[in-house]
Amino acid sequence: MTSTTARPAAAPLARTPSRRTTRRTIRRFAPGSVREAGRRSMYALIALPLGLLSIGLVLGGRPARAARVRLAAARRFLDTESDETTGRPNPGTLRVLRDGVLDTALGIPTLVLAGYAYGNTLRNLTYPIWYGDTDYHDAWGGPTLAGVWAVHAIGGLAFFAVCLCLIKALTDVQATVARRTFGQPT
Hints:
mainly alpha
């Protein structure tokens, strides 16, 4: 005879992120190549002045010129070269102004982050030049200068990698704004 009592349904297992999901997330925020990291870093350095120039051109009555400058920078540095960015050559004054304001607002943290990342990494990699004459026995990696330099170089490069991921995330937002501004209407 079979039992007539029903078993309760098994609770669904909590989904833990797999290694594949984790890798996909890391790839999403990490630059794909050194060349892409360089282009994104260059855009981080010019985004603030470019946004201010765009705002000035729009307020000066030259929104088409501002749009051309913004589109050229987005294509050059943010890889927005696709069918989406070729559809609207003159997106309108308010769209270009909005793009300039958003790029200026996002340009401030990206400029600060890029400047700090490159400056700090350069300082850490050249630690013996800057701090070679000081008492480095109490510094991280001491008491030898080689140990201090190794710790600062490794830490500086790790910090630099994190900063490049943050720069890519911020410039991804700027690329999305550029695609929406200069892309085909949906």
